[in-house]
Each structure stands twice: as structure tokens, then as C-alpha cells.
Amino acid sequence: MLTDETAFQRTSLDGISMWSRWQADRSLFFNSFFVRGTENVVVDPLALGERDVDVIRDHGAAQWIVITTRDHEREAAILAEELPARVAAPALDVAEMKLAVDRELHDGDTLGRVRVVQLEGMKSPGEFGLYIPDCSTVIVGDALWGDPPGTLRMVPDEKLGDPVRAALSLRRLWELRPQNILVGDGHCIYGNATEKIASYLASRGIQLERTTL
Q1: In the chain, what are the domain boundaries?
Q2: Which CATH number is associated with domain 9-203?
Q3: How many angstroms separate the CA atoms of 112 and 60, rounded?
């Protein structure tokens, strides 16, 4: 639902803003993102205040709301009506989602500046990341949490469809060599995201080939 609380903030990345809500029961921030480009994209939207919705409108509104996993519908239906905007979501998750989806997304699909990177074995079968090549940035929903601050981890294994496949699929994100990773849960990583992904995968015994892409 819309709130009166103003939370919209710029990031250090050109054309990318975010807003957050503290989740006391999990001791985590939940985050949402606004990516401006040829088509403006909102990712996994939490509730926004009226003034913040006006900020999005002032920047050309949003043509798309992208949901990275069925578990991140959040306030997408309300914001889609307020802006208005169309909704895009993982093709493999649509059947289990409550809101109407205008476009089903598959690996490699693009919307504005973002490109879909399909993952496997996650909490939902369709979960994906979003890659923004022009600023070497990845956005994830539940695939990785920024917790504790300065580190990355997956959700507990018991919540994953296939923990081994999930961890292995994160190599797709590492292979992009991102500088930054913006997370839907926890603290974002700026400047050394590739290293942090590699460190987490190493903690799970996954070896990476140090080749230059």
C-alpha cells in the first residue's frame, strides 16, 4: 500500500535509485530499485509514499515493474495501477502468482537497460537476476542476501528448491564480473561484487575458473 513515509534515495550508480524498509523480525532491510533507461524499470517494489511516486513520474514514470521471483510480488499490483506500468515476471513463476502479469520473462530477455539472467534451484523455479551491463551491476531478489553487511549469502538451504543447483547457478552472476550487486534483502555491495560472490561460492566448496571473459 502507499505510505506517507519518504524513502526514495539515489545510489552511486547513474540512473539507479532505491528505497528500503527495515524488517525487524529478520534484522534486514528489504530493498526495491528504480532503473532509468530507454524503458524505465521498477524492480520488486515495496510500498512507496505519494511524494516518492511523484519522483518516479517526474523521471518519466515506469514502463515496467519487474518481479524477480514469485515471493517478491510485494506492492507491485498497487504501484502498477498508480503509475501506471505493466508487470513482467519469471515465466516459470507466473502460474503461482496472484497479480496479473503482462509479460513472461525468460533468460536473455531485456527491458530497458536490464537483461534477465536465469538461475536454478532457488526458492522459486523461475527466479532470475537482472544484469545492467553499462554500469557492471547485477540486481537480485532472493538469490543472494547482503547479510551480514559486506558479505553475500543464499537463504537457508531448507528454503531452496535444490541448494547445490542454486549455488552452482550463481556462477552465472560471477561470470559477468559485476562491480556492484544490488540485493532485495540486506545491504548492497558496491565496487567488489565479483570478489564477494566468489568468496561465498568458495565457502560452499565451489571452484571457479579464473579466466578473463
Answers
A1: 9-203
A2: 3.60.15.10
A3: 13
Q: Residue ranges of the chain with pLDDT lower than 50? A: 1-4, 6, 211-213
**What are the grid coordinates assigned to 117, written together?**
539472467
Query: Which amino acid does the sequence have at 88?
Result: A
Which pLDDT does position 210 carry in this prediction? 58
The residue among 110, 73, 102 whose CA lies nearest residue 85 is 102
